[in-house]
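Pasting as-is:
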Amino acid sequence: MGTSMRAPMETSPETTSHAVLAQGLTKRYGTTRALDDFDLTVPRGTVQGLLGPNGAGKTTAVRILSTLLRPDGGRALVAGHDVTGDPRRVRRHIGLVGQHPAVDEVVTGRRNLILFGRLFHLDRRRAARRADELLEQFGLVEAADRGVRQYSGGMRRRLDLAVSMILAPDVLFLDEPTTGLDPRGRNEVWEAVRSLLAGGTAVLLTTQYLDEADKLADRIAVLDRGRKIADDTPDRLKRELGGDRIEIVVRDAVDLPRVVEVLARVADSAGEPVLDREERRVTAPVDDRVAALTNVARTCQDEGIAIEDIGVRRPTLDEVFLRLTGRSAREPNRPGAGSDRPHPSSRTSAAPVEEGIRP
C-alpha cells in the first residue's frame, strides 16, 4: 500500500529559527497508529523532552525526525531541512544516540572516537584532535586509553554521546539514553547533556524517567498511544495540578480509607485526595502547608492511625502523567495501542558515512 505525503515544507525565517519543526506527523503499522497527527517545535539550544510509556510513539517520532523512518503523513524540518524531501542534508546536521551503547568494547575510548572520526571523513590529524577535544569535554581523559569493556555504564554512555558529537550536530536525538544505568551513571550522562547546550545544540530527549525530564528539559511533550496530549514547561505542567500536596504513607493498608476521610475533613484540601493502595499512600492538594500538616498529623494521632511517613511537597511529573493518562508513566501501553515497532539498529549516528562533513 502506498503512502500519502504532503509536499515538502517550505522554509521561511519562522521555520529555520527552530531546530525541529514537525506538523501532523503520522505513522501506521497496519490498523495501529504509532504516531497520530504529531506536532512539535524545538527552538535551537534547548532540550525538548518526549514522555510516555513503552509504545507511546516516542521512538517512532525520533526515527522519523532522524530520517530512519518515512512517515505516512505530515511534514518535518530538522535544522531547516525537510526530513523526507532532503534526508541526506538533514543527516549532516544531526546526531543520534539509541537505547543501547554502540561503541566498540574491544578498543579504547580514544580509538573509538578516532575510528568514528575517520568514518565521517576526517583526516587522521583532525580525527585525533577531535577525539582529544571530546575526551576533555566529556570527562574521559583519564580513561581514554583503557579498553571500553573496563568502563562503567555511565562512562560508556558518555563515550556514546561523544561519538555523536564528532561533527558538532545542530540537533542531537537521545532515545532513552540512561536506560539501565545506576543513579551515578545517570547523573554523569545528565552533566554531559548539559554541556552540549552551551554550543547551541538542540536536544530531543525521550525517556521514561520523569525526574530525568524534569531536570534536563526546557519543555516536555507527553505522548499517549501515538498522540501528543500535553506540551509545556515542567513547572507549568506541575502547576496545573495545584500547589503544595500533603502525602501520608500508613503502616497498615486497612487505614487508607480513614486517612482519605481525615484529609477530606481537616486538610484544607483544594481537591480530592488520591489513593495509591500499592504504596499505602494518600495525597491531596492543600492551600496552607503548615496548617494542613499540623492538623492532619494531630488528627491521625488522635484517631490511632499509624503513620509511616508524612510530609508536604510539590507535585511531580509522574502525578502530571497520571492525571493526563490515568496511569503511571512506568505502565506500558496495552498491546496493539500505538506500539512502537522495534528499532532496526542501535548504532550511534552523527551523519551518514557517504555524506562527509558539514562545512
